[in-house]
Amino acid sequence: MEFLSYLINGISLGSVYAIIALGYTMVYGIAKMLNFAHGDVIMVGGYISFSVMSYLNLPGWLSVIISVVVCTILGIVIEGLAYKPLRTAGSLAVLITAIGVSYFLQNAALLIWGATPKVYRSLVSGTMKIGSLSISYISIITIITCLIVMVGLTLFTSKSKTGKAMRACSEDKGAAQLMGINVNRTISITFAIGSALAAIAGVLLCSAYPTLTPTTGAMPGIKAFTAAVFGGIGSIPGALIGGLLLGIIELFAKAYISTQLSNSIVFAVLIIVLLVRPAGLLGKNVQEKV
Amino acid sequence: MKKLSSIKGTTKKNGFTYALVIVAFAVVSLLNANGVLSRSAQGLLVPACCYIVMALSLNLTVGVLGDLSLGHAGFMSVGAFSGIVASMSLADAIPNTVVRMALAIVVGALFAAVAGFLIGIPVLRLRGDYLAIVTLAFGEIIKDIITCLIVGHDKNGIHILFNVKGNKSVADLNLAEGGQVIIKGAQGATGTQTIATFTAGFVLIIITLFIILNLVNSRTGRAVLAVRDNRIAAESVGINVTKYKMIVFVISSALAGAAGALYGMNYSSLVASKFDFNTSILVLVFVVLGGLGNMTGSIIAATILYVLPEALREFSDYRMLIYAIVLILVMVATNDPKIKALFGKILPHRKKKGGAVNE
Prior knowledge:
The structure holds 2 protein chains of 2 kinds. Chain A is mainly α. Chain A has one domain. Chain A has 11 helices and 4 strands; from the N terminus they run H-H-H-H-E-E-E-H-H-H-H-E-H-H-H. By secondary structure, chain B is mainly α. Chain B is globular and about 75 Å long. At the A-B interface, helix 4, helix 9 and helix 11 of A face helix 5, helix 10, helix 12 and helix 13 of B.
C-alpha cells in the first residue's frame, strides 16, 4: 500500500514536471533557447493565484483563470522586450538574457510580496479513500489536468493551422517563412502557450507544496528542464514521459534511499540516460554533416 | 616578419593584462594601507579575487574550449571544502599560515582537478545544450554530496562520515580527545581559521593568468582553438579532440578549485549550498559580459559586477532588480541588429575590424 501511495504521489509530482517541461520543450523546439526564466513564470502564476484568492476573496477556479491570463500576457511581454531583439544573436547571449529575466522576476516578486513565505491555500482539499489507500483530490486533479493538456497540445500541434506553423518553424525557419508563415508571431504564440502552461503548473505545484517564496519556481524549473532533456527536448510525448519518470524516481528516492540525495539521484539518472541516448529517450539524433 | 609582429602583438596584449592586475593591486593595497577602504569594502577584496579566478577559469571552458558549463561552482565547492579540511587538519603541523594556505590551495586544486577529470569523462562525450545540462546536474550532485559530509580530525587522522539517511551526527565520528569537527553536514564548515589574504588572492590571479595565457598561446592552445572553431576539421587533421578537451577541462576545474580553497579560508563558516546553480550562473554572466575568450574582459567584468551590487547596498531591495534590468539592457543593446546599426551611425569610428570577429 505504501508503495502504491508513493507511486501515485510520484505520478502527480511528475505530472506537474511534465506540464512545466512542455513549456520548456516547445520554446526550445522553436526558438532553440534554454528559457531559464520559465521556472519564475511558475512562481508568478502561483503568487497571482494566491493574491486573487487571499486579497480579493475570489473563488479558486477564477484565480486559476486570472493567473493563466496574467502569465500569458507576461510571457508575451517578456518575449517581445527581451528575446525578440536577440533573434539573430548567439545562443549564449539569449541564455544570459533569460537569466536576467529570471533575476528580474524573482526580485520583482520579492519587492511585491516580500521575503516571508506565503501559505497557499490548496484549491481542493480532502482525500479519497480506496481501502487503506488514501489519495488526495489534488493529486487526481493534477494527473487529469496533465493528461488533458497533453492531449490538447498534441491535437493543437497536429491539427490546427497555428500548431502546424509551429512545427514547421521548429523544423526549418527559413523554409517556413518562404511558405508564408509569420515566424516571429509563431514564436510569440509559443511563448504565450508556454507561459499559460507555467501558470497552471504553478497553481498545481503550490496546491501540493503550499509554501510560496520568490524562489519557489527555480528548482522545479531546473528539474522540469531536466525532464524535458530526459525525454528528448523538443518532443511533446518526450516531455510527458520525462516528467512522469522524473517525478516517480524523485519520490521513490526520497522514500527508500535518502531525502537529502533525492535530487542527486534524479540528476544521476539523467546523466546515465544521456550517456546511453545522447538526445534523450524520444529525441531525434541528428547526424552531423561534414 | 608577419609572424614576428603577431607574436609581438600577443605579448603586448598579455603584458597589458598583467599590468592592469598589478596596478589595480597596488592601488587597492595603497588605499587599504591608508585606511580609505571601509570595513565592508575590505571584506570584498578576497572574494573579488576568488570570483576573478573563477571567471578566468570558466572563460577557459566556455570561451576557449567553446563548451557551455553550468556547474562551475561545483568545482569551487570541491576546492573550498577540501582546502578547508587540509588547512584545519594541518593547523598544528604547520603553524605558518602562509605556507598552510598555499598548501590548502594546492590541495583544493588537486581535488577539483580529480573531480574535473572524473566528470569530464562522461561530460565531454556530449555536445551543446546536452553538455550544459549535464554539467548543471553534476554541479547539483556535488552540492548534495558535500551537504551529506561530516568530517573531523584528531590525532589519528581525518575521519569522514557520509550521512546518507540524515540519521548520523557529529558524535558518530568517534573523535579522540582533542579532536575537532571540520565539516558538519548541512551546517557546513564552521570554526574555520580565516587565513586568506588579499595578497594571496592577487598572487592566485597572476598565477591563473600565467597558466591560461601561456596555455592559449601554446601548441595545446592552438589545437583547442581549432577544436572549438571546427571540431570535424580539427579531427581530420589528426587532433585528438577528447584529449585536448580533457586537458582544458581539468585545468579549468583545478583553477576553480584553487579559487574555492581561497574563498573557503576567507570565511569562518561556509555551507555547501553557497555553491549552487546561481553561483555558476553568476560567474557565467561575468564571462559572457567580459567577452568570450577575452581574459582582460573577464577580470574587469568580474570586478565590476561583483563589487557593484555590494556597493549598491543603500538601494537594498532595488539593487538586484536594477542589476537584472541592466543585464537585460546590456545584452539587448549589444546584440540587437537595429541598435548596433544605430551605434554604427553615431560612432562610425567604432566599427569593428575584420580580424576582431573571433575575439
